[in-house]
Amino acid sequence: MSPTPPERWMARALRLARHGLYTTAPNPRVGCVLVKEGRVIGEGWHERAGEPHAEIHALRNAGEAARGATAYVSLEPCSHQGRTGPCAEALVEAGVAKVVVAMRDPNPLVAGRGIERLRRAGIEVEEGVLENEARELNPGFIARMARGRPFVRMKMAMSLDGRTAMRSGESQWITGPCARREVQRLRARSSVIMTGVESVIFDNSRLTVRAEQLELDNAEAIATRQPLRVVVDSRLRLPLAAACLREPGRTLVATVEGYDGEHRERLEQAGAEIVVLPAEEGGRVDLTALLSHLATHESANEILLETGATLAGAMLDAGLVDEMQLFVAPTLLGGEARPLFELPGLTRMDEQRPLEIHDIRAVGDDWRIIASPRQR
Ligand code: AOF
Ligand code: ZN
């Protein structure tokens, strides 16, 4: 019998890591499988920040059998003492013979030191097995560690003629229940749900994760952690009656200097947190500054941008959108209706914004297109 290729075990570690999709933030999703003589003798995944890392669960699961085993971990074992750890130390102490990692930990506190620690103890380390798959699992953690900003995923629902709302702003509902469930899941995996004040005024959406709409086994537990709601509101127009202010979880209003009157006080009394950021030319919130604020002060990994044409266009123009998920409904809203993006000043074909499509599939009666802006 030929030996199982390392990719098979790593694929299993990645499947385990996915159990943490909705719960590990701000930590990465990580899975670990311990294998001896071609058999799994222990496995685990990281579930929640502050709780044991994947390797520790797997080692506990294996007990004494871990001695001489090979560990397959989807992320380099940590070398630092954080809320827990260090895992590299635990693997050495358990007498593991070999460690296979999918990718290095981009956290500057680790960044290769975990692998170094293992090698110094005489443990063989193999790197890069299913690295791309491992990276895809933690785009936000990687972006925050490597670029100092979160990963921005933009979700939009549109008609087949590219419209997102009627001229009045009315937009409920364009897509069907399956697409809306997918959007709930996108919210649940995100650290932040971001929108513009215009959208809040038009839709009065709650911007929350609703357990009953997730259709997942541990939905209740997932929905206890509500993503931070961020409203981009350069002139501080958020209505006091906004529904999102009365939901569980926090609402952060991003504005610029000069709006510290009575309305601000009332908003704060209503539970909003106001953050004053640098302004761009024209007086709007500097979006790059907002993203670095969210990475630094909120440890935000993934941001779900659910907004109207103006903020969507501004984010795209600033090069801040990493991924777009477009839900396309089989319906026509007509020429009076609102478009997906406001991208003023595009007049020639060589100014178009090319996209790269990564995935297209049916979601109920709708279509989902995953795309990203092409680097020009
Ligand atoms: C691992 N295995 O399963 C995870 C790791 O505050 P702590 O102690 O939870 O440490 C968090 C950091 O540990 C996190 O930023 C990342 O660098 C690493 N995550 N490492 O060995 C795991 N989740
Ligand atoms: Zn660790």
Describe the protein.
The chain has 376 residues and is α/β, with parallel strands linked by helices. It has 2 domains: 132 residues, Cytidine Deaminase, domain 2, CATH 3.40.140; 235 residues, Dihydrofolate Reductase, subunit A, CATH 3.40.430.10. 30% of the residues lie in helices and 24% in strands. The protein contains 13 helices and 16 strands. The strands form 3 sheets. The chain has a 9-stranded mixed β-sheet. The chain has a 5-stranded mixed β-sheet with strand order 2-1-3-4-5, sandwiched between helices. Strands 7-14 form a two-stranded antiparallel sheet. A hairpin with a 2-residue loop joins strand 1 and strand 2. Helix 3 packs parallel to helix 4. The longest helix is centred in the first third of the chain and has 13 residues. It is globular. The mean pLDDT is 95. Bound molecules: ligand AOF and zinc ion (ZN). The site of zinc ion (ZN) has 5 residues, from loops.
